[in-house]
């Protein structure tokens, strides 16, 4: 496992802009759910590049497909037809029950497109000031519009004035939502993560999602579900809202769709699919052949290798192992989430666990200050899930037993 004699020393990077609080390692290569750092230490990847590396690292089929594609075309521009776009779009529509896809390059871009659709949907109906309902603790990205839609004041601090046109309500509170709708007749869309990721793994309840679908139908609003993090098989269904048996009008996707190759997509149903016409939206890189091939191959491998079922089963095992390991421990507020999107909420900020886990050969994240987040590759095995729990549980126990450190 980890070489005992090598100490962790941060590589210096005086020319990279200092926007991230980084751990003092650099990774050099990976295999499945394992990665190695430049000093040769091995880590079990409970983070999956933040819910991105669906197929893990160095997946033989993905690597072969990408090698093949790089030797043909990487990029052509959208001046021309890109047949792989139709191939991936058709697949996403078949899996979601929606009808049309716009491709971009990241999560915030997918959300920007969704917000533009929400506004134009209003304008097309004679509403010159369309508003969008968003939620407390939401995260939708870090562009000016998407950070305005985000519910975390830390993400917004220093970047005002915020984009107007957002009405914020608490999650899972249908009464508050009804009141907001009554007070804001210009609302054209309801925009939420089916399971909040950065906000601390907070699921929208099934009954709440069903109520939202009903309200959107009654009021002619767009239901826009940000599945950038929780979509693409992570919860054990292709899309997290499918657990509620509903279909959204607009669904931004990104993270897991390309298994690590940057990609974003907005998948739309009938109500939203024709809102954009020629000239309304575009991107230079979006839908390039390399990213499309990554998406096509990721979905194909997920199907042939049964990764939805794997995410459900191994995720349930991982959750059970953590619940069992932490049972009755004061300081553990809740273990929640679905499939391989799990959060362990503690009663105190626990960012220090990032470094401790790394030292124990485990990669994970801490979000919303107090929530340990596990979003590993969907190829995770039962044995690897057991190993994540075996490495994590003692760390949490020791952390909670230690006297609280000064903030
Ligand atoms: C990560 C994330 C985004 C932003 O995606 P980027 O690719 O970082 O721009 C948006 N929404 C959700 C739910 C996310 O988890």
From TrEMBL:
It is found in: Cytoplasm. The modification N6-(pyridoxal phosphate)lysine is found at residue 255. It catalyses: N(2)-acetyl-L-ornithine + 2-oxoglutarate = N-acetyl-L-glutamate 5-semialdehyde + L-glutamate. Pyridoxal 5'-phosphate binds at residues 139, 226-229, 284. Binds 1 pyridoxal phosphate per subunit. One of its GO terms (cellular component) is cytoplasm. Pathway: Amino-acid biosynthesis; L-arginine biosynthesis; N(2)-acetyl-L-ornithine from L-glutamate: step 4/4; Amine and polyamine biosynthesis; ectoine biosynthesis; L-ectoine from L-aspartate 4-semialdehyde: step 1/3. The keyword Cytoplasm applies. CDD domains: OAT_like (cd00610). Its cofactor is pyridoxal 5'-phosphate. Its EC number is 2.6.1.11. GO terms for biological process: L-arginine biosynthetic process. Pfam families: Aminotran_3 (PF00202). HAMAP family: ArgD_aminotrans_3 (MF_01107). Belongs to the class-III pyridoxal-phosphate-dependent aminotransferase family. ArgD subfamily. May also have succinyldiaminopimelate aminotransferase activity, thus carrying out the corresponding step in lysine biosynthesis. Homodimer. This is Acetylornithine aminotransferase. It comes from Roseateles chitinivorans. The lineage of its organism: Bacteria, Pseudomonadati, Pseudomonadota, Betaproteobacteria, Burkholderiales.
């Amino acid at each position: 496992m980890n070489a005992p004699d090598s100490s962790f020393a941060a590589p210096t990077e005086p020319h990279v802009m200092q926007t991230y609080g980084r751990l003092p390692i650099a990774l050099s290569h990976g295999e499945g759910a394992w990665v190695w750092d430049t000093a040769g230490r091995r880590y079990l990847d409970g983070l999956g590049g933040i819910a991105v590396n669906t197929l893990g690292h160095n997946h033989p089929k993905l690597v072969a497909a990408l090698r093949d594609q790089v030797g043909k075309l990487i990029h052509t521009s959208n001046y021309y037809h890109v047949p792989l776009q139709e191939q991936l779009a058709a697949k996403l529509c078949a899996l979601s029950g929606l009808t049309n896809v716009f491709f971009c390059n990241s999560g915030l871009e997918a959300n920007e497109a969704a917000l533009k659709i929400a506004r134009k949907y209003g304008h097309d109906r004679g509403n010159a000031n369309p508003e969008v309902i968003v939620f407390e603790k939401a995260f939708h990205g870090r562009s000016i519009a998407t950070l305005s839609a985000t519910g975390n004041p830390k993400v917004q601090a220093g970047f005002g004035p915020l984009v107007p046109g957002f009405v914020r309500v608490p999650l899972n509170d249908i009464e508050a939502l009804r009141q907001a709708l009554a007070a804001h007749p210009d609302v054209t869309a309801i925009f939420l993560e089916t399971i909040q990721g950065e906000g601390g793994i907070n699921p929208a309840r099934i009954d709440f999602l069903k109520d939202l679908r009903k309200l959107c139908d009654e009021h002619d609003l767009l239901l826009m579900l940000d599945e950038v993090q929780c979509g693409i098989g992570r919860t054990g269904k292709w899309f997290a809202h499918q657990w509620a048996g509903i279909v959204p009008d607009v669904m931004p996707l990104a993270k897991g769709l390309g298994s690590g190759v940057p990609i974003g997509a907005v998948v739309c149903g009938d109500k939203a699919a024709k809102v954009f016409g020629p000239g309304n939206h575009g991107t230079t890189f979006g839908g390039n052949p390399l990213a499309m091939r990554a998406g096509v191959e990721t979905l194909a491998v997920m199907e042939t290798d049964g990764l939805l079922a794997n995410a459900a089963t191994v995720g349930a095992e991982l959750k059970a192992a953590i619940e069992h390991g932490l049972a009755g421990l004061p300081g553990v507020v809740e273990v929640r989430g679905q499939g391989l999107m799990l959060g362990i909420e503690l009663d105190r900020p626990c960012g220090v666990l990032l470094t401790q886990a790394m030292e124990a050969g485990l990669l994970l994240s801490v979000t919303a200050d107090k929530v340990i987040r596990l979003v590993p590759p969907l190829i995770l095995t039962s044995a690897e899930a057991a190993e994540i729990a075996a490495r994590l549980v003692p760390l949490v126990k020791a952390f909670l037993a230690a006297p609280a450190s000064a903030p």
